[in-house]
């Protein structure tokens, strides 16, 4: 493969520079989580589980809950991940996710607060890499958004008696739960520079050809929330601006496509046969 | 305009019985009992437990007289003399190159089994040895033939013909070696305007057809001129067709690839790998191949 293959808007697999591979999204695949999603993007296979647990709010933000990210690189994905091999990549991805979700607006953390300074919901977002086929970050962010959309947190009430001691009461109805508003959850778009052009959704081979790539997180409204440069090559300012513009444009359509499929799945409800892992 | 398609995963359907073609193959999964008859000999891919012959890999049972083997569906490449392979140079050593050919051990290409540029035949001198990296260096792709197989299964290659040698511009597709059909020739100039090399080791090289074959270069020069868009479209389409055939587990040979290419023509190149389009194209290919057999 050569850099000339991305000139003229034609890539090795026939895609244009701004085309994604066909993605499969399914939510609610793991029954013992609050919310889960599995995303397949080409050969990249990601499973995300969200677990809501009760904890104490952080001191600096007493009236907010928080999110915790953990990325597990399964040795099933590539043999390099065996033992501690995947740890470095896992921490890198988790740190990126922390940064992407650090902006105030991404998730309404106030709604996760139960009792200021004492109790809040902590959402543990566990990402599992099942297969690596390039463009991990985008696939993970799609899966995280889908899993957060699927998350259902049980409703609780705080009862206070005369002596001032508080008691938390869980709703009896298991379907009585709160859902998160994911409209402002950003997705990551990775733009890889190959030759003079940049491409989105690079395959493993394309990633090997790319010296530098730009990771940007974009909300559904096209607002850019964070940015990171990866790879050892350099990028000149002009192309960075170009890539940002492309990223925003692609990001918007990515959000639209994702929201459409999530709504479609929800509208089908229980009538749809679950596929899961063995389907 | 960015094209992004997302879908819900489809439930996998049970595959119906394959087209009837003279006797069903005896397929086994690991742990399946092949036979309880103790008169058979244990071959590759099998083991004996409690006087039963049991498969240790998934694949088709093969019987040669009393010897029972299981040929795995998905395995690394087992070299055989005369095979055409495509490989990648991983190391330059003394008087030899190490070549990655998807087999269990790295293959070797000896300096004495290549044609030197200029085409003259002579003993290899120390100068030739020093200039080895000028001919082939790490990362280069070559096509070669298997000259011999060592006792440990490692393969020795040779490129002593003008049709072998360094590969220039094109696309490599890696598939399972068991999906490449053995044929008289593995070099095909397809009428659609590109050529393919179907390596027996599952490496498939698709490249634009050369108008004039350079006799003098000895296969070490590479033409790095930009490939025109029309050629690249053909190559991309062929690549996607091959990937589609592999996904649907159809044997790869010139006719199947060409039929698949023709079936794909109504669709855009990037749509070929969409599950429903892929299935439709491969089904059409399969039907035409069956018609051909009669």
Automatic annotation (TrEMBL), chain A:
It is found in: Cytoplasm; Nucleus, Nucleolus. This is Exosome component 7. One of its GO terms (cellular component) is nucleolus. Keywords: Acetylation, Cytoplasm, Exosome, Nucleus, RNA-binding, rRNA processing. The keyword rRNA processing applies. Component of the RNA exosome core complex (Exo-9), composed of EXOSC1, EXOSC2, EXOSC3, EXOSC4, EXOSC5, EXOSC6, EXOSC7, EXOSC8 and EXOSC9; within the complex interacts with EXOSC2 and EXOSC4. The catalytically inactive RNA exosome core complex (Exo-9) associates with the catalytic subunit EXOSC10/RRP6. Exo-9 may associate with DIS3 to form the nucleolar exosome complex, or DIS3L to form the cytoplasmic exosome complex. Exo-9 is formed by a hexameric base ring consisting of the heterodimers EXOSC4-EXOSC9, EXOSC5-EXOSC8 and EXOSC6-EXOSC7, and a cap ring consisting of EXOSC1, EXOSC2 and EXOSC3. It comes from Falco tinnunculus. GO terms for molecular function: mRNA 3'-UTR AU-rich region binding. InterPro entries: ExoRNase_PH_dom1 (IPR001247), ExoRNase_PH_dom2 (IPR015847), ExoRNase_PH_dom2_sf (IPR036345), Exosome_comp_Rrp42_subfam (IPR050590), PNPase/RNase_PH_dom_sf (IPR027408), Ribosomal_Su5_D2-typ_SF (IPR020568). Residues 20-154, 184-249 form the Exoribonuclease phosphorolytic domain. Belongs to the RNase PH family. SUPFAM superfamilies: Ribonuclease PH domain 2-like, Ribosomal protein S5 domain 2-like. GO terms for biological process: exonucleolytic trimming to generate mature 3'-end of 5.8S rRNA from tricistronic rRNA transcript (SSU-rRNA, 5.8S rRNA, LSU-rRNA); nuclear mRNA surveillance; nuclear polyadenylation-dependent rRNA catabolic process; rRNA catabolic process; TRAMP-dependent tRNA surveillance pathway; U1 snRNA 3'-end processing; U4 snRNA 3'-end processing; U5 snRNA 3'-end processing. Pfam families: RNase_PH (PF01138), RNase_PH_C (PF03725).
Automatic annotation (TrEMBL), chain B:
One of its GO terms (molecular function) is RNA binding. The keyword S-adenosyl-L-methionine does not apply. Keywords: Cytoplasm, Exosome, Nucleus, Phosphoprotein, RNA-binding, rRNA processing. It is found in: Cytoplasm; Nucleus, Nucleolus. This is Exosome complex component RRP4. Signal peptide: none annotated. GO terms for biological process: CUT catabolic process; exonucleolytic trimming to generate mature 3'-end of 5.8S rRNA from tricistronic rRNA transcript (SSU-rRNA, 5.8S rRNA, LSU-rRNA); nuclear polyadenylation-dependent rRNA catabolic process; poly(A)-dependent snoRNA 3'-end processing; TRAMP-dependent tRNA surveillance pathway; U4 snRNA 3'-end processing. Residues 76-148 form the RRP4 S1 domain. Residues 170-209 form the K Homology domain. Belongs to the RRP4 family. Residues 27-64 form the Exosome complex component N-terminal domain. GO terms for cellular component: cytoplasmic exosome (RNase complex); nuclear exosome (RNase complex); nucleolus. PANTHER family: EXOSOME COMPLEX COMPONENT RRP4, PNAS-3 RELATED. Component of the RNA exosome core complex (Exo-9), composed of EXOSC1, EXOSC2, EXOSC3, EXOSC4, EXOSC5, EXOSC6, EXOSC7, EXOSC8 and EXOSC9; within the complex interacts with EXOSC4 and EXOSC7. The catalytically inactive RNA exosome core complex (Exo-9) associates with the catalytic subunit EXOSC10/RRP6. Exo-9 may associate with DIS3 to form the nucleolar exosome complex, or DIS3L to form the cytoplasmic exosome complex. Exo-9 is formed by a hexameric base ring consisting of the heterodimers EXOSC4-EXOSC9, EXOSC5-EXOSC8 and EXOSC6-EXOSC7, and a cap ring consisting of EXOSC1, EXOSC2 and EXOSC3. Pfam families: ECR1_N, KH_6, S1_RRP4. The keyword Methyltransferase does not apply. The lineage of its organism: Eukaryota, Metazoa, Chordata, Craniata, Vertebrata.
